[in-house]
Amino acid sequence: MRVEILDEVLPTDAVMAEMKAGADGAVCVFDGIVRDNTRGRKTLYLDYEAYREMALTQMEGLAAEAIVKFGVRDVALLHRLGRLVVGETSVLIVVASAHRGAAFDACRWLIDTLKKQVPIWKKETFVDGVIWADGEPFPTEVALNGN
Asked: What is the per-residue pLDDT for 134?
């Protein structure tokens, strides 16, 4: 299990390569990148802040829970803080598993739960203003299943 909060570019290729093992039939990756707009507003950059110690502890708990809950072999969960520009990775989730279904389910649950529960905040700077972003609600199908 690899869980980190970093202030520099996330090592996406290295993390994906180190996660693969002979027992795996799937490695599912969520590479959350900064997009150039939100709801039609042109994005200049994002600033991420966190209550670092609490966020790291909660991320470690989520990674461990995903391994047990979904029966996957391993999880990497990394988040970047600081200023990020369009195209940069803000969050990286890699799930290794014998089966693709478990890997997909764990990966989806991890990003949805992280965004809802972990004390990491995003400030979006647009060409026409700045806002602190609200967390996204859980997708209906995940919330209804109690996952």
From this structure: 72
